[in-house]
Specification:
By secondary structure, this protein is an alpha+beta fold. The protein has 16 helices and 16 strands. The strands form four sheets. Strands 1, 2, 3, 4, 5, 6, 7 and 16 form an eight-stranded mixed β-sheet that branches. The chain is globular and about 65 Å long. It starts with a helix and ends with a strand.
Length: 471
């Protein structure tokens, strides 16, 4: 792809600032961001999700150095001149690789100005812990990402997947796509400290150009790929409201959903079989297998919905239910959490995603597009009821609703972790001008930049890796 060709060309000493040694191989990988078409935050509750890799991607170049060398990590934005770096001596790198996940997080994030490097150096930590990888030789990593940060299109997953794939190739380690994505999720969960689901990394690693990845997040089962008809179009508009997975809203909604599952498990009489040393509960659940989305909406409505509290304090929950089944979610006893709506959302969302996936096959018919649009609007409204809306994303969705089929547009919804970020839009493929008009009008109204995501590209595994040697 042309972005990879330009990236490789830029690795020459005159342009890369002498980062890489001539004559030694450089592993190059590319991983795109993703547009969350349907599924979103229901991923951590086991939902089916439908994800499209976007055109924008992160590129990583990795070269191993000599014995006794440490680690040099350089990150460049798409704009020339925006460069930042972190360097570790051999002894500091050895300390990092010998550290626990908690210790590694403290090492890499103690200085806020360089905490970005946790997404890259964390790859080495996870490979050392999970794959027993050895890094006896030094390593140089160059990252350049065109996936904008804080837009809800998985910039962090793209960075992790590109870096992981390039590092693995550089040290001769073979990882299949699911293992690659799972290890990248561990980077974000345990080294960076952000409680994301598996959806983003899987889409970046295993997505296919112009297809929807149908992923059942239990924990990461690829159910197939749904070709996107050339008659329909999918776009994203950035609201200009910054999104962060590690933010309080996403975290509290995630916590509320896992609180709801624990309450349901107790209401159903499921025994707690073990409490491990970290305080994570293990429930004997042979019926729903630990996932809220395995409850049918009819069963949830009849047996549990009205028995869930609207809200509950952390202290009250811990006194009654002891803890959660999720190892990366923590309860603050002093906080009050919404429970019923965060628990309800994944149950109904999984149903909506399944129906949407069925309708994609019929998307040449207007009736199918209309129903798909309704499902997107329902998903958006459910996000908002959980407290994950924002004025910008609500305004964009309202503008798409107002434009409607007359403009060739049928649906829109907030994406990813919510609380800002990008809105996904569905319409006929020739409605691109209408999408741009909405983005332009939104920018005039709000004073925010409204970037339009358009187009698709292959996931990291479909693209593969390249090995380049400088003359």
């Amino acid at each position: 792809m042309c972005d990879v060709d330009r990236f490789i060309e830029s690795l020459r000493p005159t342009t890369a600032g002498g980062l890489f040694e001539p004559g030694l191989p450089i592993a190059v990988a590319r991983a795109p961001g993703r547009l969350d078409v349907m599924g979103g935050i229901a991923d951590y509750s086991g939902s089916l999700v439908l994800q499209m890799p976007i055109r924008e991607a992160a590129l990583a170049a990795v070269q191993t150095g000599g014995e006794g060398e440490g680690l040099l990590v350089v990150s460049e934005a798409a704009e020339p001149g925006d460069r930042r770096s972190v360097q570790m001596s051999r002894s500091d790198l050895d300390d990092l690789l010998a550290a626990s996940y908690q210790e590694a997080r403290e090492i890499l994030t103690r200085d806020h100005a360089s905490s970005w490097a946790a997404y890259l150096a964390g790859v080495l930590v996870v490979l050392a812990q999970e794959e027993r990888a050895r890094f006896d030789r030094g390593m140089r990593i160059l990252l350049r990402s065109e996936v904008p940060e804080g837009k809800g299109v998985s910039s962090s997953a793209a960075i992790e997947v590109a870096t992981m794939q390039a590092v693995a190739r550089a040290i001769g380690l073979k990882l299949d796509g699911v293992r690659l994505a799972t290890l990248c999720q561990r980077v974000e969960n345990y080294v960076v400290g952000a409680p994301c689901g598996i959806m983003d990394q899987m889409a970046s690693a295993l997505g296919r150009e112009h297809e929807l990845l149908a992923l059942l997040c239990q924990p990461a089962e690829v159910q197939g790929y749904v070709p996107i008809s050339p008659m329909i179009g999918l776009w994203g508009i950035d609201s200009g409201v910054r999104h962060a997975v590690g933010g309080g809203d996403y975290g509290s909604v995630r916590t509320g959903a896992f609180m709801g599952y624990r309450i349901i498990a107790d209401l159903a009489g499921l025994p707690v079989s073990e409490v491990d040393l970290s305080g994570v509960l293990r429930v004997e659940d042979h019926h729903w297998k630990g996932f809220l989305t395995n409850l049918k909406p009819s069963e949830f409505d009849a047996r549990f919905r009205d028995r869930l509290p609207e809200t509950m304090s952390g202290a009250e929950f811990l006194a009654s239910h002891r803890g959660l089944t999720d190892p990366v979610t923590r309860i603050d006893p002093s906080r009050t959490y919404a429970v019923r709506k965060p628990t309800s959302h994944p149950v109904y969302e999984n149903d909506r995603v399944r129906r949407f996936g069925e309708l994609v096959e019929e998307a040449h018919a207007e009736d199918a597009l209309r129903e798909m649009g309704v499902l997107m609007y329902l998903s958006h409204d459910s996000y908002s009821s959980c407290g994950l809306g924002s004025d910008g994303t609500d305004r964009l969705v309202a503008m798409v609703r107002q434009a409607g089929p007359e403009w060739g547009l049928y649906g829109a919804k907030i994406t990813g972790g919510g609380s800002g970020g990008t809105v996904a839009i569905l319409g006929w493929s020739n409605a691109g001008d209408a999408v741009q008009e909405i983005a332009d009008r939104y920018a005039r109204e709000t004073g925010r930049t409204a970037y339009v995501f358009e187009g698709s590209s292959p996931g990291a595994c479909q693209f593969g890796t390249r090995v380049h040697t400088l003359d």
